[in-house]
Each structure stands twice: as structure tokens, then as C-alpha cells.
Amino acid sequence: NAGVTQTPKFQVLKTGQSMTLLCAQDMNHEYMSWYRQDPGMGLRLIHYSVGAGITDQGEVPNGYNVSRSTTEDFPLRLLSAAPSQTSVYFCASSRTGLAGGVLPVEQYFGPGTRLTVT
Amino acid sequence: RKEVEQDPGPFNVPEGATVAFNCTYSNSASQSFFWYRQDCRKEPKLLMSVYSSGNEDGRFTAQLNRASQYISLLIRDSKLSDSATYLCVVNSIGRSASKIIFGSGTRLSIRP
Fold it and tell me: What DSSP designation does A80 have?
């Protein structure tokens, strides 16, 4: 099993450019999510999905779109990059359990994408 | 007030020492709790889940205090390899679905 893979590992964008961060998992997990991590802020949830065709917003969704057409893939799109989106982005996946099957249990993280917007 | 708060540290302790961190949470409806470990410039990895009855895994002990709304992590006989940032995670049901909040982490540095 490859686990959770993310591409690219590093990216530099100019303000206004758009791009898609890719995330894939081969563990057949229902739950997938995107986080950004900034110094002193911890991980903040951007968007998440509880299954194919179902997505919802997290804490900081503005400027990002997601879709979940398959169980395996959960791409994150930056619509018009801004310097405030400079961050490290982590994708995670989990099976769900507890509370009627909604809450994720152990989350497995990808290696991250380090994005700089100039 | 942040929903999940941790002392950022750094905690700088000698090898072999016992060190403990707390993490407080504000949502009394929170339902599951975890400790993750994150090495520098790496992804977080699950260290242990935190159960109501408390749980132990080798040198690591996690406890939950629902009345005071905090979780704790105790590391005994610390090793150099324990140097990392420790993140607490609190899960609860939000208005639409699950809500997962990460603390900003506590940095631990073990010195020889």
C-alpha cells in the first residue's frame, strides 16, 4: 500500500494563478480531508469529504474548491492564488467510526505540499 | 478563546526525564480525542487515541478528564527520539457533520 500520496511536493505560484493539488489514497477510506499548516497556527481544516460525491467546508474554505468523484482521489483547487495561501498543505484519509459512522478515527496524512505564492 | 489549546513550549528536558503536556478543549460535546506526533517538516502521525478510562502504550500514557475538559500525555524515560511536536486533536459533531480541531502543538526537545 502506498498510503496517502500528494503531488507536487513543492510549488511556487504567482498571485492570480490557479492550480490543483492532488491527493490519492489506496486504503479504501471513506473520509478524506485537506489541511493547511502555518507557523503557530496548527493544522486548519479546509475541506473534507465523507464519501464519493459528498464534500463539505471546514474552518478555512475560502479560495479553495474540492471534488470527490472517486473514493481514492480528493483534489484541492486553488482558484486564484494569493500570498496568504502560502502554506504547507496536508491531505489525510481515514475510515469513519464512532457517532453513527461520521467521525474519522485514525487519520493518515500524506507527506505534504509546500506552496509559495509570490 | 481557541477551541483547542496547547502550551507551545518548547519543553527542553534531559534524556530519561518524565514530561507531561496538557491540552484543553472548549466544546463539552467533543467525542473523540487523539495525540499525534509531528517531526520537523514531516506529516503528523497518530501517537495514540485517548480513551475515557485512560490508556497506556509503553512509555506513553494518555488521559482524558471530561469534567475539566482536558487531555494529557505523559512520557516516561524520555529518549532523544521523542523530540518532536505533539499535537492534540479533538473531534466533535458540528452543525452539519464532523468537526476536527487540531491544537497548535507542543514542542518537545530531549537533550543528552
Answer: S
| pLDDT of residue A39 exceeding 60 | yes
Q: How confident is the model at residue A99 (pLDDT cuts 50, 70, 90)?
A: very low
Asked if B7 and B21 touch (Cβ cutoff 8 Å), the reply is: yes
Read off the pLDDT of residues A44-61 as tens digits, 9 standing for 90 and up. 999 999 889 999 898 899
Nearest to A112 among B43, B45, B93 (CB): B43
Collect all residues of chain B within an 8 Å Cβ-Cβ radius of residue A112. Answer: 42-43
> Which positions in chain B have a beta carbon within 8 angstroms of at least one beta carbon in chain A?
4, 8, 31-32, 34, 42-46, 49, 87, 91, 93, 96-98, 100-105
Q: A101: nearest CA in chain B?
A: B98
Side chain identity at A57, as an amino acid letter?
Answer: Q
Spatial distance between the Cα atoms of A52 and B11, rounded to a whole number of angstroms: 42
Three-state DSSP at B76 gives: coil
Which pLDDT tens digit goes with each residue over A20-29?
A: 999 999 999 9
Query: What are the φ/ψ torsions at residue A37 (nearest 5 degrees)?
Result: -125, 120
Digit-coded pLDDT (tens) for B78-95: 999 999 999 999 987 665
Pick from B28, B6, B36: nearest CA to A104: B36
